[in-house]
From TrEMBL:
It holds the Pfam family UPRTase. Pathway: Pyrimidine metabolism; UMP biosynthesis via salvage pathway; UMP from uracil: step 1/1. This is Uracil phosphoribosyltransferase. It comes from the Bacteria. Residues 6-208 form the Phosphoribosyltransferase domain.
Length: 209
């Protein structure tokens, strides 16, 4: 079963409250999504493997730890996931960035991939898939399918706000994918919005409506 981590850090919760507020404008919204993504990246990388190397400090030789070079692939789900990319890259600047684009088939309402571009060494990378909102989970499940179809073996999913329905959808379809959330909300409404949520993340990030 997927592990679900709600990152209940005071800084994240404070910033998330401002993000949720409908009076927060595009510029501040975008900046805060970026900051929360950075803070979440700190937590999501907690299990990164380390190795010991020998260095010379100004005082003596010392053994010290460095990341053991595990390669990371960062993949935003278009379009709103783009808002989290730079924030994660601040902490993991060497990550390669792939993209997954999905649209909703108007008849079946199922997400269909229209664009997938990943680093070519997919099997060797640990992937972090990002999308600010985990609502029904349809897009996240399909994006994970897209990564796995191309050989991805290790995937974490990171979002700002999740509905319980979305968490369950990932757990049911991909129980090997751990889920990192800043806020776990109450439910989805009849229009598929997360309640209380923050509205449409893509529109709020890019000032569209
Ligand atoms: N996508 C959004 O941007 N907001 C929601 O509430 C649900 C899905």
């Amino acid at each position: 079963m997927s592990n679900v981590y709600v990152i209940d850090h005071p800084l994240i919760q404070h910033k998330l409250t401002i993000i949720r507020d409908k009076n927060t404008g595009t510029k501040e919204f975008r900046e805060l999504v970026d900051e929360v993504a950075t803070l979440m990246a700190f937590e999501i990388t907690r299990d990164m493997p380390l190795e010991e190397i020998e260095i010379d400090t100004p005082v003596c030789k010392a053994k010290a730890k460095v990341l053991s070079g595990k390669k990371i692939g960062l993949v935003p789900i278009l379009r709103a996931g783009l808002g989290m990319v730079d924030g994660v890259l601040k902490l993991i600047p060497a990550a390669k960035v792939g993209h997954v684009g999905l649209y909703r088939d108007p008849e079946t309402l199922k997400p269909i991939e229209y664009y997938v571009k990943l680093p070519n060494d997919v099997e060797e990378r640990d992937f972090i898939l990002v999308d600010p909102m985990l609502a029904t989970g349809g897009s996240a499940v399909e994006a994970i399918n897209s990564l796995k179809k191309r050989g991805a073996k290790s995937i974490k999913f990171m979002c700002l706000i999740a509905a319980p329905e979305g968490v369950k959808a990932i757990q049911d379809a991909h129980d090997d994918v751990d889920i990192y959330i800043a806020g776990l909300d109450e439910k989805l409404n009849d229009h598929g919005y997360i309640v209380p949520g923050l509205g449409d993340a893509g529109d709020r990030l890019y000032g569209t409506k």
